Amino acid sequence: MALFFDTGWFDARLAERGLSRRVMAAAAGMSEADLTLVFKDQRELSAAEVAAFAELLGAAPAEIARQAGVSTPVPGGGPEARFSSLERRVAALEAELARLRR
Asked: How much is the pTM?
């Protein structure tokens, strides 16, 4: 479990970009319920989720990890891991767009 998740910092970054927590969850390939647990500091982020949040919020992965809690891992995967992560997130965002269009 993360030692301290800075909810205010993450909400402010989302607001600056006009994004919601729902979009944040979709971009990281996680459920809204899982994201709620993260924001309540009851679930730690994976390295892939740190990377997804960093890209979505335009911040360095180390900053995301710091704001999420000191025990959260910073991603360091190679290009294959990055492509896989991007493909997974694109699929999640496409599914969310399809749902919103209904």
From this structure: 0.68
